Amino acid sequence: MRKTRSLEQWRSIIEAQQSSDLTTTEYCQQNTLSKTTFYAAKNKLKALPGNFVRSKITKQPDVIKPQQPITLTVGKVKVSLPSTTPATYLSQLLREFA
User: What is the pLDDT of residues 48-98, one digit of tens each?
Assistant: First the structure.
């Protein structure tokens, strides 16, 4: 027998799926929901003005710290190079200073 749900009921169902660790397929199977109907309700809710679908961060982003420049000091001469300077260039430069 087909069950009719209100948009508020679908909103609760969609939020419950998003807060679970289940995929949409797994959630629908465990709750005897039609995946097609689930996605149709989700799209209908998205289309409503002023609505949004809650998201959850599943992986923390890696924080990239800026690299310090390479600084060479020979006598009174100080050379500052970006940290991305190729090793071959640094090798040639150091040979010139020697």
Answer: 877 666 677 777 777 888 888 888 887 888 888 898 888 898 888 888 876
Relative to beta strand 70-74, strand 77-81 is antiparallel
Residue with the two structure tokens 């149709």 = 40
DSSP result, 15-47 = HHHHHSSS-HHHHHHHTT--HHHHHHHHHHHHH
* pLDDT at residue 40 greater than cutoff 70: yes
Angle at 49 between CA 15 and CA 33, to 5 degrees: 35
Q: From CA 80, how far away is CA 48, in angstroms rounded?
A: 56
**Residue 30, beta-bridge partner list:** none
Amino acid found at 95: R
User: What end-to-end distance do the CA atoms of the chain give, in Å?
Assistant: 87
Spatial CA neighbour of 96 closest among 85, 79, 86, 36: 79
pTM above 0.90, yes or no: no
